[in-house]
Each structure stands twice: as structure tokens, then as C-alpha cells.
Write a structure and sequence with these properties.
Length: about 500
Amino acid sequence: MYILSLDQGTTSSRAILFDKQGEIVGIEQKEFSQIYPQSAWVEHDPEEIWHSQAAVATQVLINAGLNSKDVAAIGITNQRETTIVWNKKTGKPVYNAIVWQDRRTSAFCDSLKVEYNDFIREKTGLIIDAYFSATKIKWILENVENAQEQADNGELAFGTVDTWLVWKLTGGKVHATDVSNASRTMLFNINTLEWDKELLQLFKIPENMLPEVKSSSEIFGYTDTSIFTIPLVISGIAGDQQASLFGQMCVEEGMLKNTYGTGCFMMLNIGKKPVLSKNNLLTTIAWKIGNETNYALEGSVFIGGAVIQWLRDGLHIVSSAKESEQMALQVTDNGGVYFVPALTGLGAPYWDQYARGAILGITRATTSAHITRAALEAIAFQSNEVLRSMLFDASLSVTELRVDGGATANDFLMQFQADLLNFPVVRPKILETTALGAAYFAGLAVGFWKNMEEIKNQWITDKTFFPLIDNDLRMKYLTHWNKAVKRALDWEEH
Ligand code: ADP
């Protein structure tokens, strides 16, 4: 028997089959369209999301020579915050999915900040921002003809992408989400674990639109037989970063992971109480299993692996992301070059949208290898800063950083990260931690895996990077980095 994990991401839908040992036995992926109706607007077609997800789910079984009766359970993990509103009777979306990246409600968010910043933060753990679902729902209700009226009459349903997939998979029988996805809507009270009536009022969203909120590991429903030949149980759901934290088995307080993709996403398990950040990091629900809710602090780096894409596509000094490693190793150090990749502003702990990219310390001896090395080092410098902010907020002691994502293939980057942090960086064998986390939630709920001990043993190290530099050199790097960041801040006119 196997667990079928549905990993519904921002650019593609994937389906991955895991066996009892937590090993991958099949993987299928399908991209879908990105829709940009205006600058800073990003949409997806909900039907296309569904069709691409259903297609890979059936195809992965066929390719592995398996069929529906070989599937013990389905787990779902998804791009978070993306908002879909549909008609409960017809099942038809009233508007495209508004994607998490979409900025159309920024001005409205800014107008809320003065009065409601602390109010919303204390309830939801979030900073008021257009990312989260609340203002996207409000936009749909205000801008789609008759939508507010239909919503007030109880005719519309809202869901994040997990909820939409469950609705479609169950043939419209189940309207539900899990706590981790609910905690990204800016409507969910992370203290009481309920939709917050005051927030619903503030955003004029009727409660009957909202899905039932369940834990991350329990039975949500059964698939309709038009999709799989027999009804399959859906028993695990979590947002992508939370699923990855679980897939990395960061299940104890003080355990932490960083995903190195286009951006970097760091999450620290802070245990059973929601600690609010003093550095504008997000507090979020990691998961709920049984009656236990686990919280996490989250921080992100906007430009992570993307800086390497820029070296490739903008500067043409590397021909592939992979080549950046050889290039960086052509020189013995960064030659005094520091690269602040504030290409779209800087996030935690600076939060300066007017910062812009800067390459400093250039001399006549500087080569493209130094610049490449400085770009890779910048990914580590930024991640180090997010981590320091987290530890300041949570005052936990941390012993290692677990890593995943495309750029972790770069051993130079991983080593430099360990050097800066001054504790080990650990790369596991299975890097598909997001899909694996969703599979674990699903498998635990149906007894496919008996308990946490069984799955904890499946997490295996590929390579550990131990810090190798002394404190003086570390301080020298950090001092120069800080100096470089100062020059990049507040650059753009405003
Ligand atoms: P995402 O899920 O955000 O699309 P991935 O996890 O697939 O990201 O990682 C892709 C990112 O990682 C790209 O930005 C790419 O530049 C970077 N990347 C991939 N391989 C390497 C490498 N060997 N060294 C440095 N960066 C890399």
C-alpha cells in the first residue's frame, strides 16, 4: 500500500507516491497557466488547477503500475493563501483564483494598518498584508456582480486551494480545511482556533462561506468514484511550508528548517504556545494532531535562488544555476565583494521596500567569480539574519538547521551557511519534504504509520555541513555584510 500525496504548488501540480519506508515510488508533474490581468495582479484558473491535479494523481498510479486499491490514503499540501470563491450549488468559481503574490489589495491593507495592526496581529499572528486571503475574498465580493448579495444569502463558498481540491475530490460533498491553511487567511484566531467574528465583520465576510476547520491529520472525506475507481480517504492537509516542516521531522520545539528555492522560507517550531514576534516575523499554526496544536515562527527571504537566476539570465556570467558552485570555488574568498540582493526591497529584519540591490567592494582585481561567490554568500547572509531574528523572538536554543529546496544542491552555499550560523546545516536524503509531510499527516490518521517514532526514523541525513571558520573571520564577514546592507537601504525615491 502507498500514500498518494498531492502537492499543489504555485506553478505546477504534482502527485507523489510514498511507500511505508517514506521512499518515493512515483512522481508526476504538470504546469498550469499563470494569468496576469494587470501589473501586480496574479490569477490561476481554478478548473485548470483541478484538472492538472486530477491528471497527475491518476497518471502517477498508472506509471507505477498501480491502481486505486493500492492507495491507503491521500494527503494534500498546497500553495497557501490563494483564494477561490465558488457557487455552492453549481460548484462553479465566480472568479479566478487570486494568487498569494497578487498585490491588488495593497492600498486597502495600508489603510488598515494604522488602526488595526495590533488587533489583527494578536488574533491571527500575521502582519496586515495583501498576501493573506481576507482582503482577496473581500475584493471578489465587492467586484464580482451580485457576489456580496449571493454570499449574504449563503450561496457562495470560500476556500484556499486545499479546500477547493477536497470539494472537487469529494464531488462537492465536503467543504473543509485544516488549521495551518486557516491560519493564513487573516480571518482565523490562532488562540481560540476559530474563525474570528470581529474579523469577519471587519471584512464583511459571512461566516457561512467559510470551510469547517479540522486538524491536519484526520479524515476529511472520501473521493468521488468518478475520479478513482473506489472511494479513497483524504486524511491529511497542510499548507506547503508547514508540510515541509513536518516532512523535515522538525516536530520538537527549537527545531527549524529553511527551504532554498526562488526565495527562502524559514520556519521554527515554537511548541504549543503562539509567541508573537518583535521583528515582524509571522506566527502561524504549524499543525494540529489530535488535540495538540503546534505553532511556528516564519520568516522569508524574497530573493534567494533568484539571485542566481539573475546571474544567469541578467548578467550571463553563469550558464546554469549549478555552474555557480564551480565558479564560486575558482576563488579562495569573496575578495572583499558583498552583494546585497535587495532587487525587490528587503524583508525581515529590515522591512524596507525602498532598498535596492547593490554590489560593493569592487576593485580592479574583482572577477565574475567573486561576484558569483558574493551572490551565493548573500543567500546565506540573509537566511542568517532571519534566523537570528527568530531566536531573538523565541529565545530557544537551536542545534541544527535542516534544509531543502533546489539550491541546497550547492555544497558551497550549504558550507558557507553553516560557517555563518556557527552550527551544523543538515541536508536530508529526501528533499521532497513538502509532499512527504502531507503524506505523513495522511498516513498517521489511518494507521498506515503507527506513530511518530516510526516516521522519525525515516528521516535520514544525506550530508551534514559543520562550521569550519573561526569567530574572527565570521565577525569580519558579518561586519562587512551589515555595512553593505546599510548602503542598499532606502535607495529608491519615495
Ligand atoms: P521553487 O520551488 O521556488 O521554484 P526550487 O526549489 O525548484 O525553487 O529551486 C530553484 C531555485 O534554486 C532557482 O532560483 C535556482 O536559481 C536555484 N538553484 C538551483 N540549483 C542551484 C545550485 N546548484 N546553486 C545555486 N542555486 C541553485
